[in-house]
Amino acid sequence: MLERAAKALRTDPASYQSVEGVGYEVSDSTLFRWDVHFEGGRHVVGVVGLFPLDRLIPHEATTSSRRRRPRHPVQIRPVMALVAEPLPLLDPTGPSVHFRGTHHQIVTPISQVSFDPDRVVIADGHHRVAAALRQRGDPSIMTMIVNADQTDLDAGTFHRVFHNSVTLPDSIEGCDLIREPPLEAIGAGRIAVVTRDGSIGVTVTDRYDPPALRGLPAGLAERYVLPGLGLDETDARYVEETIEALVAVDQGATAVILPSSDISSVMQLAANGLILPPKSTRFRPKAIRGLLMRPLLDPLDPADWLSGDLQR
């Protein structure tokens, strides 16, 4: 199916399908506005187009366990990236396409804009960017750019689960510990360590080393908490939901449950050229797969693109 879609769309770097999911239309536009409306009246808006791969800045490492498979001949979801600058005015040039699933997502073709942000930090899509860079073909990737300061995105995180059970410590260097339930701990912004013997909430009180780790619990856990437990980040299994981590504890594992990350801290970390461990953030909501698609059968000539511009 993806190969057929790529062949149908190869004349245009981005296109959209109808809400019913029947067929794939080729759009005259190469730039789009993407809106996501979700619970509580929250809203995420981004501008989607092609962006140079070599200007996308990672904030976390990729997992080494993933097989390095070649890219599909079509991109089915844009990489999400953050900028500090306000987005340009996005004037529609055609009708919007709506998708009502878990969230209400709207894609609208827009007029070309001049937009050259200073720093573009990958939020979601590190593995896709890494695969595209390894391929060394197309110099650009379909990217959804979001203003980091004017968004309802949740930076989230992945929890760490370790097969071996540890003894809950009485102290960890540079940290304050308190006996409390895990949900109470993360609700207060603390890192929760959970075993069959109970749980503790951990607050890092040391002067952060480096300071850019403030607001980034996965980085703090790797720097302070895991060594204090005799655990290593490379042995972690990453899980999305708190309940999944607690079920693993019932089976004899140790869980390190993390509160959400701070988006401004992600931007500051990237500005300092630092990298977090894999799966340090979990940005939600994502753009859904297939609402915009970009074929890769005919890679662009590097001479045809202008560095920094969102364009074909």
Structure description:
There is one protein chain. With 312 residues, this protein is an alpha+beta fold. It has 2 domains: 2-154 and 283-304, no CATH class; 159-271, no CATH class. It has helices spanning 2-9, 126-135, 182-187, 217-229, 242-250, 263-271; strands spanning 15-17, 24-25, 32-38, 42-52, 56-57, 74-75, 79-83, 97-100, 104-109, 120-124, 140-147, 159-162, 175-179, 191-195, 198-204, 237-239, 254-257, 292-295. Strand 14 (191-195) and strand 15 (198-204) form a beta hairpin. The two termini are 24 Å apart. Mean pLDDT is 84; it is low at 1-27 and 298-312.
Task: Estimate what percentage of residues fall within beta strands.
Answer: 25-35%
Structural class: alpha+beta
Which series of helices and strands comes N to C? HEEEEEEEEEEHEEEHEEHEHEHE
Range of helix content: 10-25%
Strand order of the largest sheet: 5-10-7-11-4-3-9-8
